[in-house]
Amino acid sequence: MKSPLLNKLSKNFRSRPPFNWLLFCLVSVLVVISLLGSSSSAFKSVTSSVKTDTYTNYRKLKEQARSDYLELKTLSVGENQLKDVGVCAKERENYVPCYNASANILAGLKDGEELDRHCELSREHQYCLIRPPKDYKIPLSWPAGRDVIWSGNVKLTKDQFLSSGSIMKRLMLLEENQIAFHSQDGMIVDDVKDYSHQIAEMIGFGSDTEFLQAGVRTVLDIGCGFGSFSAHLLSLNLMALCVAAYGSSGSQVQVALERGLPAVIGNFISTQLPFPSLAYDMIHCAQCGIIWDSKDGLFLIEIDRVLKPGGYFVLTSPTTRRQGSSTSAKKGSMSSPLEEFTKKLCWSLLEQQEETFIWQKTVDSQCYTSGKQGTIPICKGQDMQLYYQPLAHCISGTGSDRWVPIHSRSDSMNSTELKDSEFWKSAVRNYWSLLSPSIFSDHPKRPGDDDPLPPYNIVRSVLDMNAHYGGLNAALLEARKSVWVMNVVPLGVHNTLPLILDRGFVGVLHNWCEAFPTYPRTYDLLHGNGLLSHLDSQGCSIVEVLFEMDRILRPEGWIILSDKLGPIEKVRTVATQMRWEARVIDLQDGSDQRLLVCQKSFVRK
Ligand SMILES: *[C@@H]1O[C@H](CO)[C@@H](O)[C@H](O)[C@H]1NC(C)=O
Ligand SMILES: *[C@@H]1O[C@H](CO)[C@@H](O)[C@H](O)[C@H]1NC(C)=O
């Protein structure tokens, strides 16, 4: 039973407002309208905010807030005279977000962890365009650009390439404003060839041309110097990815990428690499700076996680020689910690020559539990969608259906993958024809340069921001484009990264609400199929991702986004403000899917 008071209240509540109150409202509205006067755009914004009130569903509200934000950005600089976004300060020329060591130290990180990636500690976001260095020049096209780069394009001190004694690093000569990775007499190239040949022989092959037949397709090169070993492996049709720590004053990753070689910033001081387990056929470290027998073998366990069964770990280091030599004299004794760890990991030492050691990971998943090998437990639980997880003192991958020895895998495609591949073949044909300034009516020239000569579409390094099964990568290779593709599987979608890696491609898991671990100006083409819709579903700021795309794309580089009309139109507006040339292309198939093709201009100020 309701109380009389409550009855009275609810009756009042339900009863209509008195007439004079309605009249008051009407008059007020008229007054507001007349105050707004002729400003029809302001009136429009009033009505649209009224419209948002009808959204009751939280998710829709969130989406609306985001698109309002996008529109707000547009409005704030004047709808009619779209004002360009400003250029960042010169200090940001080589800016990589998430690697601010001083902020990390302030937050209490130490023991090397301050050098790790910590996006949560560098949240501030500046809406400005990273400018290229003063002497920046468009890189030479592949393969010339592999051997010669513009010195003004990368941050390196003279000391950096003269001081290092490592075979991977001493391969540089300076010629005027260029850095060369070869010498006239071919001696430098020979050094790397000899080294690669030596590794092949140590494994038991006649020559390094046999790597492929023996199942070595993908190589992870930790601390890759300037990428010369990777470059050589690529020439043998292997896929070699360089991974090295962030360096605030010059970096191996930046130089490797500038040469058009696959590379990404990464380390595993405290967190795992952004790869699933059983990812690579070979892992290589030549003086890569890791103290392998520290932390109770934790770094070796991470190598074991990422290595495929039967895969090889190649370690070249003067300190290993010291560690190893005491034991090689007394075979069977367990005096070297490194030897002890590798035994526990079921690795067998194939060969040791001078400073180079080669181990092979077991093909027997039972080996770890057979008892006689020791004490490293098997990891519990799935490792499907792991991302920057802490290093774990346990063995991964033994229960996986991807536990297939590298020399006995098969490369068959099922029907889903075949259909996917047909789609991408035709997509690549279309895309390639679009990559020409002629699709924009008024293409800006490079400052101070003559008209660029054809081909305009100098594309070597491709970032597929939502790679699905790696179909774009496969189609580009099939069309014999001389590109390499970094396949990104975004967090929150079905994790296809293991499948991509098993096709012999490279890729990483990545959360697009955060910055991508690379230096500015390192990709020639960014591609995103369904990326914008994905970002919306994740609640990421699309504007922030667009600024991030601008950061990592080289001047005059290309962007191809394929998505629904709504998000495409919104991005086109922002793209124009970011001084990208932009064109929306209707696929003429009756769907609401559109292509947005953009080219980043060469912005100086
Ligand atoms: C790095 O962090 C420090 C301390 O929080 C801050 O003062 C500095 O501006 C940051 N640097 C960059 C490049 O964001
Ligand atoms: C084909 O393979 C993919 C990836 O392994 C899988 O998701 C899909 O279900 C498979 N399709 C068929 C028809 O087996």
Automatic annotation (TrEMBL):
<keyword id="KW-0472">Membrane</keyword>
<dbReference type="GO" id="GO:0032259">
    <property type="term" value="P:methylation"/>
</dbReference>
<dbReference type="GO" id="GO:0008168">
    <property type="term" value="F:methyltransferase activity"/>
</dbReference>
<keyword id="KW-0489">Methyltransferase</keyword>
<keyword id="KW-0812">Transmembrane</keyword>
<dbReference type="InterPro" id="IPR004159">
    <property type="entry name" value="Put_SAM_MeTrfase"/>
</dbReference>
<dbReference type="GO" id="GO:0016020">
    <property type="term" value="C:membrane"/>
</dbReference>
<comment type="similarity">
    <text>Belongs to the methyltransferase superfamily.</text>
</comment>
<keyword id="KW-0808">Transferase</keyword>
<dbReference type="InterPro" id="IPR029063">
    <property type="entry name" value="SAM-dependent_MTases_sf"/>
</dbReference>
<dbReference type="Pfam" id="PF03141">
    <property type="entry name" value="Methyltransf_29"/>
</dbReference>
<keyword id="KW-0325">Glycoprotein</keyword>
<dbReference type="GO" id="GO:0012505">
    <property type="term" value="C:endomembrane system"/>
</dbReference>
<dbReference type="GO" id="GO:0005737">
    <property type="term" value="C:cytoplasm"/>
</dbReference>
<keyword id="KW-1133">Transmembrane helix</keyword>
<protein>
    <recommendedName>
        <fullName>Methyltransferase</fullName>
        <ecNumber>2.1.1.-</ecNumber>
    </recommendedName>
</protein>
<keyword id="KW-0735">Signal-anchor</keyword>
